[in-house]
Structure formats: structure tokens, C-alpha cells
Amino acid sequence: MPHHVEGAVVARSTPRVEGSALLGPDGQASAIAVGTPAWFAWLDGATTFAFADEQGSFTARKERSGRSGWYWKAYRKRGGTLQRAYLGKSADLSLDRLTAIANELAQRPVGRSPAESPVAVSVARAVPDAEAPPMSGASLPIGTLTFLFTDVEGSTQLWEQHSALMPVALARHDSILRQAVGTHRGVVFKTVGDSVHAAFARAVDALGGALIAQRALVNEAWGATGPLRVRMALHTGVAELRDGDYFGAPLNRVARILALGHGGQILISRATHDLVADDLPAQTSLHELGEHRLKDLSRPEQIFQLISPDLPSEFPPLRALEARPQQRRRNRSRSSPPNCMSRRHART
Prior knowledge:
The chain has helices spanning 37-45, 95-107, 135-138, 155-161, 166-183, 203-219, 249-260, 270-276, 325-335, and strands at 3-5, 8-10, 16-18, 21-23, 29-33, 48-53, 56-64, 70-78, 81-88, 144-152, 186-192, 195-200, 230-238, 240-242, 245-247, 266-268, 285-292, 301-307. It is an alpha+beta fold and 348 residues long. It folds into 2 domains: 3-138, no CATH class; 144-307, Nucleotide cyclase, GGDEF domain (Alpha-Beta Plaits, 2-Layer Sandwich). The strands form 4 sheets. A 7-stranded mixed sheet has the order 5-4-3-6-7-8-9. A hairpin with a 2-residue loop joins strand 8 and strand 9 (81-88). Helix 5 (166-183) runs antiparallel to helix 6. The longest helix is centred in the middle third of the chain and has 18 residues, at 166-183. It is globular and about 60 Å long. The relative contact order is 0.09.
């Protein structure tokens, strides 16, 4: 006997997501909650599921797009018209994404083709009947963006000491970051080891996502591995979007800013500071850390730290670059007494 979901009729064997839980064949909620590591692992082997909540409903189907690989598409039949929307790769199917697509399909005028439908959210663009575009065209924002880069401090040592536990801990870390980014209208466009790279159309969203992620990481019960201390950096600029990835000077700068920080710290460039200073989350502030040289970049950066009363705020000085040889000689000359011995005869 088929099961009716508004806008679609699906077999009882089709997995269903209602609210935030994946339902089993008997209609009872399973132990898999949307957005958790178990959810993303389940998606890797799934081919279809139905989704329904108070915003709307659709049937999701995994399809293949040439070199772009597998992606998910949402379908909903309404008024005799089959409507479609691009969901994204499995890693993008957070509860926020599913809800946004359900809402977009529910609000789409009957009879209007997907290509003509308005865009409800930048990460959930509807696509025409032809092959769904890759992530670079459908989900990633363009223009002036704020980039969030993160990585786990001391991860090499953690893997050495807890090799059996780190996969679970890192999956939880990834889930926390993806949820924080998604709920603040951002997109994770790359993960490299324990590093996460995300893009936001608005700087205030990027700041909010970083803050929520850091709070969740600090409050997480990590178990035997101990806490994962994650450093974060934000910078705003215009980058080139190509083949689902971003390229350009802003990416280099935010990576260099990140390298100066410590686990648990959120660093912000001057460009991002100027966009968020008048719209900070409640009870937060920005503390100026001074101007710092960045490796391989000619222009130094004025760096700020986000301060929140529920997060650690005391950290060692930023990891400064070693001064250039000429600068070291100049500093030494200025600090040496008049009759000091020359550098050639100095003790090492």
C-alpha cells in the first residue's frame, strides 16, 4: 500500500524524513537524526527518500551528472505539474537545506516552470528540466563574500594518541561546523583533513556561524580524546568561483590569518571587522590585536579577536612571523649598546 506525502505518492518501503528524524519502515523514528554523522553516512548508500515538515514536502532522488558525480534532486507534483529543485551533494543535505527546499517548492506558483521560479535562498536554487548543474553553479554564492577557515589545533598528536577514537570525534566536529554554517546561510565548499572552508554572502552571517560553532565545540562532551580546540579566521573579499572551489587573494589571506591563531580563537580581518562592527551578536565585542605580517603577503593585516563571555578569551600572542633578515639587523642595531661586539663575533 503506498504512503501519501503531499505532492507525491511513495511506496511504504521508501524511507521518510519527518521533522528532523529518519523514519523506519514501520513509521517509527529511527536513531538517525538529520544532520548527524549517521545521517550523512546513510545518504551515501541511499537512492531516494521522502521529506515532509510544516514548510512542505518533496521526494528526493539521487542522480548522476557526468563528471560532477552524484547529487540529489527534489521532486513535487502540484496542480498536474512536476516541479524540481536541486538539493546538492549528500554532504549538503542538512535539515536547514531540506526545509528551505520544501518551502521553496511549496511557494512556487502552480504551472510555472522551474527555470522561471524565484530563488528562495541562494543555496537552494531551482534548476530546469535539463541536467542539474554542479555545486559551483547552483549552491555557491558569488560576489563579495566572507570566508570562514577552521582547523583543529594539535590534530596530528591527537591522531597519534587516539587513532581509534578520532574518526568519530572528527565526524562530530564536521557535523557541528556544517550545522553552524548551514543555519547561518553559509556553504561548506571544501574540507581538507580536519580543516573546513565555508563561504557566506553576508559577513554578519559568517561571524554568527563561527560564534555558534565555537560555542558548540566548547560545550561538546568529547570523551577520551579530550576537547578538539578549533581555531577560526574570517576575511572578506572577491574570489573567483571555478569548478566548485574558490580562488584568489582573499583565500590566501584568510589562510594566513588562520595560521596565526590558537585553538578556540576566532580571528577577524579588518575588512570583515568593518562590515560587522555595528551589528555584533549580543554580549560580544571585537578586541584589536594589532597589525601583523602574513607569510608571503606584502601587505600586513590588522587583526581582531571576537570576544564572547561564554568562550575562552585569553590566548598566547599570535604566532608572529620571523622578521626579515634586513629587519632583524635593523632591530639589533637599534637595541645594541654603543660598544657592543659586532654580529660576526656574537655568541650563538
